[in-house]
Automatic annotation (TrEMBL):
Name used for this protein in its record: Alpha-ketoacid dehydrogenase subunit beta
Keywords, alphabetical: Oxidoreductase, Thiamine pyrophosphate
Cofactor dependence: thiamine diphosphate
Keyword Transferase attributed: no
PANTHER family reported for this sequence: PYRUVATE DEHYDROGENASE E1 COMPONENT BETA SUBUNIT, PYRUVATE DEHYDROGENASE E1 COMPONENT SUBUNIT BETA
GO molecular function: magnesium ion binding; oxidoreductase activity
Cited SUPFAM superfamilies: Thiamin diphosphate-binding fold (THDP-binding), TK C-terminal domain-like
Domain Transketolase-like pyrimidine-binding residues, every copy: 6-181
Length: 326
């Protein structure tokens, strides 16, 4: 198979298809993933080709979906469970943090739970309440879970395949506002390691760390800053638990400044951990305090206000200006 240009959603579909083909123990399960193909059509055509016993339409019961996935994993399967929208994951939160995340340690390493939980997250689609949230910080605090989030179709394909092959539980966050963006995907290529960050654009004056939906915003900011003679380096974290702090550190040691951007609220967000760690590691290299740009500490607003809530190009560039003013 040669490289081709795919939308983010098609790349994820291709990854699921490849995983189902390569391992008969891989299962896909969730609300409307079968006949409908998922509300975003990520699982389109999979039930038709692999049957109802491997692509399973579940009841509308997130706790039951994850509880069943845990049981299947204990029996040797590799379930890929879909949570239809980010805000629907909370009925399953107890199963995830008290069972899925703890079983390996509780069994002293004798039990493995290769469960992937796919969660479309983030805003930008004009949806109603509980359909555009960014709950990543709630899961990064939980020991025993891995959490990754691709920002482009190629990473979407490879990171989902790697997550399914992993013997540990993985929360796989998909930036739903980027589902329709296209990019090159090479199924014969060599992917980066799952938990490594990547320099998406090199620069010299300031580092912007982003992940998932805000990587495109960071790249847009770098392009706009270039027109003003400023060189921004963009680092795509890709993995939020664990975080590849070494790549971020090397970047900040070169640039001396750091701005972290994410859609989730700034208060207690992933950016706070990145800021704290890099301040510890790069204290003598920093020429300005680490700044954070993100959503407000408020419930996600109605669709007409989400452009004001989400950290767009202007808000990120304002953060860049403040950091460069020191």
């Amino acid at each position: 198979m040669t490289a081709e240009k795919l939308s983010f959603s098609k790349a994820l579909n291709a990854a699921l298809r490849a995983s189902l083909e390569s391992d008969p123990k891989t299962l896909v399960m969730g609300e409307d993933v079968g006949k409908l193909g998922g509300v975003f059509r990520i699982t389109d055509g999979l039930q038709k080709d692999f049957g109802e016993e491997r692509v399973i339409d579940t009841p509308l019961a997130e706790s039951g979906i994850i509880g069943t996935a845990i049981g299947l994993a204990l029996r040797g399967y590799r379930p890929v469970a879909e949570i239809q929208f980010d805000g629907f994951v909370f009925p399953a939160y107890d199963q995830i943090v008290t069972q899925l995340a703890k079983m390996h340690a509780r069994a002293l390493g004798k039990i493995k739970l290769p469960v992937v939980i796919r969660i479309p997250y983030g805003g930008g689609i004009g949806a109603v309440e509980h359909h555009s949230e960014s709950p990543e910080a709630l899961f990064t605090h939980v020991a025993g879970l891995k959490l990754v989030t691709p920002s482009n179709p190629s990473d979407g394909y490879w990171m989902l395949r790697q997550a399914i092959e992993c013997d540990d539980p993985v929360i796989f966050l998909e930036p739903k506002g980027r589902y329709w963006e296209k990019g090159e995907v090479d199924p014969e290529g060599i992917p980066d390691a799952l938990h490594t960050a990547r320099v998406a654009r090199p620069g010299t004056d300031l580092t912007v760390v982003a992940y998932g939906p805000t990587v495109r915003t960071a790249l847009q900011a770098a392009k706009a800053a270039e027109e003003e003679g400023r060189s921004l380096e963009v680092v795509d974290l890709r993995s939020l638990s664990p975080i590849d702090f070494d790549t971020v550190q090397r970047s900040v040691e070169r640039t001396g400044r750091l701005v972290v951007v994410h859609e989730a609220p700034v208060f207690q967000g992933v950016g706070a951990e990145v800021a704290a760690r890099i301040t510890e590691r790069c204290f003598y290299h920093l020429e300005a305090p680490v700044l954070r740009v993100g959503g407000f500490h408020a419930p996600y607003p109605p669709a007409r206000l989400e452009d004001e809530y989400l950290p767009g190009l202007d808000r990120l560039l304002d953060g860049v200006d403040r950091a460069l003013a020191y």
